[in-house]
Each structure stands twice: as structure tokens, then as C-alpha cells.
Amino acid sequence: MGKLTELAQWEDDVYQIETSDPVLGGPEGITNRPAKQLANRTQWLKEKLEETNNALVEHEKSRNHPDATLVDKGFVKLYSGVTSLDETMAATPKAVKIAMDNANARLAKERNLADLTNIPMARQSLELGNSATRNVGTTANTVAAGDDSRILVTKKAIDDTQIGSSEQAVMWIASADDLSNLPAGARRFAKNNAGVTVLPSADYCYIEVLAKRDTASGTCINVVEYSNPGNVWTGVRNNVPTDAGFTWVRQYNESHRPPQQAMPSIPDALVRGNNLSDLTNPAEGVKNLGLTETIQNLFPVGAPIPWPSDNIPAGYTIMQGQTFDTSAYPLLARAYPSGVIPDMRGWTIKGKPASGRAVLSREMDGNKSHTHTARALDTDLGTKSTSSFDYGTKSSSSGGGHAHEFGSYVNSYWGDSNHTSFLTGGGAWTKVAGDHTHTTWIGPHGHTMYIGPHGHVVIVDAEGNVETTVKNIAFNYIVRLA
Questions:
Q1: In this structure, is the dihedral angle defined by the CA atoms of residues 233, 239, 244 and 247, taken in order, positive or negative?
Q2: Furthest-apart CA pair in the chain: how many Å?
Q3: CB within 8 Å of 99: residues ≥ 6 apart
Q4: How far apart (Å, rounded) are the C-alpha atoms in residues 218 and 239?
Q5: Distance between CA 341 and CA 447 in Å, rounded?
Q6: Same domain, 220 and 307
């Protein structure tokens, strides 16, 4: 029967047909089989649903869930900080507030400082003062004349300008604050003037330093130069308004040295800029300065110097057994009076022992005298057996037929010599034995070979380098030539 109405409800009992025929009815009957199968399937589905529900409940309680990524959704960790670059955590409202508070405390670039909350304090921090809010001018709220003693009331021309206000002196003037009465040879700044030389090659000029200001007279020092280049004079005057009364002293310099006859006690001097390079005898100069021993003691001449290059520096030579001029290098000759520099190629330096060796003597390579012990262990192999073998029964060759002759004694029952005399001549013979063989039995057996206590010869092979060495790095030994 098809199209049965099915209800989504649980049936505790399943109806089965009761019949007397167990083939059709009963628990295993054909008629009840569909109902039983449906009941079994329903029970199986019920158990699976319960397992699924239980698994979902446990899953909701567990932490076994995927983490969120930039691509897939999932669990995320909350973070209230603002310094992490992790993209797998989510910001909390606290973190957002910190970021917003930080942003609100910043100045917006596009507002050009208009969002300053305390402009006077900002000017104070920048040390701008009140002048930052005032324009230069003569109207109200401007920086005007009289606000500062350094701001002049009237305009000053650039021509013939002074250094500062009326209380300060001007440049290159003989009398204080007066530009109209310049002495001959004095110079001033003026409009459209051609370039001038402060110290002209012709005539003279002088520079005065007044000891008393605002007066025409006073103690001053003047430097004057005449037309002869490099001829400088220094003059001093006191309480005179003009160049009269100067006491002049000629100054000697590089261009004008004093003549020898004028100062005979001064020999040819060294030029300061040459840094002693103009010494005629540097070695003697070092000696006169008392530096000879000091320089030698820095590294004594003759001492071998390990040098890490094949390029030997100037003033040195490689130590390779060569001769040298003892007169040209007297300090080196003190170390090597023979005039021969030791050959240090392939050699090391060893401290001279207390006795038995001379300085610069050579010692060939070798090992310290010593002994070795060597032996081969005694060996006793005892008695050894060979492998066993069995020759079995062996036969001799055939042949050998023979007979034996023997004599008898007459009238002797016993046939011996004690009872009768021997009968000579043709006597009795034994029966002939024909050709025959013999057998010999050699059963299973072995052989032994004795190897008693004995020794062996031990040969020690040679090993090592061509000479006795230690770990080393090759340097060139050089020596200073002096």
C-alpha cells in the first residue's frame, strides 16, 4: 500500500500481526518483517541523532575552533594595546579610545597651527617674545623707533656708515666720530669708490688703537708700510694728534732678514715651517737633543723584526746572511761586528741557555734524546690437532708363497736335543703356503703438532716531517739599517 501518511512522532511500540502461522506472523514472520525493519532503522537513526547532539554539545564547550585570518573567519583574541602589528587580534574599545585620544592630541598638518590651544604659550616655548606679534613700522602695535636704543630715530645712509650708534666708533678714522677730516692715507667705506688696498704699496697708512676714546690725542700704536714691499715699521706715540712724534722700529720678517754683520751672534736659523727638515746632519741633531738612546731603545738596531710582507720598508733590510758596510751603519755594526747579518730564513729564535751555547750560534733540528720500549707479547698456542681422518682396512700386495724346513731328533719322543741326537740330511718339511695377502687396520685417528712459547720481531716505521717543527706562521725577519 503506497502513499501512507507519515507523522514525525516517536512510536514506542511497533504493531505486529498475530497469526498462528509463524511463517507469516510472529516476530520473524514475513508479514511483520517490513515493520520490524522500519523499527530497526528508526532505532538506529535515533541513536545516531543522539550521538550527533551530544557531540555538538561537547564541541560548543571546547576551544577546538579555527582562528580567524584575513581570509577566513574564526576565533579572534581581543587586545587593548596600540603597539602590536599582529593582524590576528581584534582591538577592544579601550584600544580604540587610546588611539583616538592620541590622534586628538596631535596638530593637524592641514590646519597650519590653527588648532593650537594656547598660542601665547607656544610663542613662549619658541622664545619668540612679543615682537613676533608686531610688525616693524611707526603705527600702533608695531616695533617703532624708540622701543630700543639700538633702533635709530632717523635713517642712516649706507655711505660712510658707522659700526653702530653714535656712542660707538667708526672704522678707519683718526679722530673719534668724524668722517669729514680723514688724514692722508686713511680709508673709509664710501659709495662708488673703487677697490682699495688696505696697506698700499706706495706712501704709508697707519692703524691706531686709542688708549683714550673720543679725543684726538692719546696713546696709540701704529703700523706703517713704505713703498718697499715687506718693509714694516712699528711706531708708538703719546698725546700727539698727528703722526709727528712717532718712534719707529723696523720689523724684520721673512722678506727682510737682519744682515749678518748686524747680528753676528745669530747663525743660519732653521725655518719654522720646515719642521727640522733643513737640518744639515739629522743624526747629529738627534744626538744634540739627547734623543739618541731614546730612539735606539724604542727598538734597538740589530734586533730581528718579524715583518708580514715581502715589501721591505725603506731603512730596513731582510736578514738573509748578507754582508754590510760597518762604517755606513755603525749602530748595526755594534750588534754584528763581523759585518754579516745572520740568515734568518727558515730559522726561529731561541733564548741562549746558561751554558754550552754562544750568541748567534746555530743549533740544527733534532729530537730530545729519549728511549722507547717495545715488545711482542709471548704466545703459547699449546697442542693443536689436525683434522681427523679414517684410512679404513688396507691390504698388502699378493705373493710370498714359501715353506719352512725343520729337522728332528732321532729316538726322542719329545724330539728335543736332550733325548737324542739330531738327524741331519733330508728332513721333514712344512706344508707350502701359497701366494696370499695380509690386511692391516688403520682406524680413525688424528695427528697433533706442538707449537710452544715463542716471540715475534716488531718493526717500527718512520713517521713525521722532514724536520722538527711547531705550529708556525712565516714572517720575514728584517733589521733596521743605522
A1: negative
A2: 209
A3: 82, 91
A4: 5
A5: 80
A6: no
The predicted-structure confidence for 358-380, as pLDDT tens digits, reads as follows 999 988 888 888 888 777 777 77
Where do the DSSP E strands lie in 191-310? 220-225, 232-237, 247-251, 305-307
Residue reference for cell 666708533: 169
The answer to whether 317 and 482 are in contact (CB under 8 A) is: no
- Give the β-pairing of 382-385 and 422-429: unpaired
Distance of alpha carbon 304 from alpha carbon 319, whole angstroms: 8
Residues 6+ apart with CB under 8 A from 307: 313, 316, 318, 475, 476, 477, 478
The distance in angstroms from the start CA to the end CA of the chain is: 133
Three cell numbers, residue 73? 573567519
* Residue type present at position 350: K
Where a domain ends, among 299, 318, 342? 299
234 neighbors 204 (Cβ within 8 angstroms)? no
pLDDT, residue 477, reads 96
Residue 298 pLDDT: 72
- Confidence at 317, pLDDT banded by 50, 70, 90: very high
Tell me which residue of 197, 219, 200 sits closest to 209, measured CA to CA. 219
- CB distance 437 to 393 below 8 Å: no
Reply yes or no on whether the pLDDT at 179 is more than 60.
Answer: no
Pairing of strands 305-307, 476-480: antiparallel
Whether 407 and 427 have beta carbons less than 8 Å apart is answered as yes
For the chain, what is the domain count?
A: 5
- Whole-angstrom Cα distance, residue 399 to residue 66? 112
CB atoms within 10 A of CB 296: 16
Based on the fold, state whether residues 177 and 235 are members of the same structural domain.
Answer: yes
C-alpha cell at 3: 502513499
User: Strand, helix or coil at 314?
Assistant: coil
Question: pTM for this one?
Answer: 0.30
Half-sphere exposure of 440 (CA within 13 A, CB side): 6
Cell (9 digits) for 20: 498462528
403 in the same domain as 295 = no
Cell of 276: 727640522
- Closest of 351, 371, 369, 370 to residue 360, by C-alpha: 351
Residue pair 138/153 in contact by the 8 Å Cβ criterion: no
As a whole number of angstroms, the distance between CA 70 and CA 89 comes to: 11
Residue 465 · residue 471 · CB < 8 Å: no
Dump the DSSP string for 331-353.
HHHHH-TTSB--B-TT----PPP
Q: What range defines the domain where residue 284 resides?
A: 270-299
What type of residue is 453?
P
In the chain, the percentage of residues whose pLDDT exceeds 70 is 54
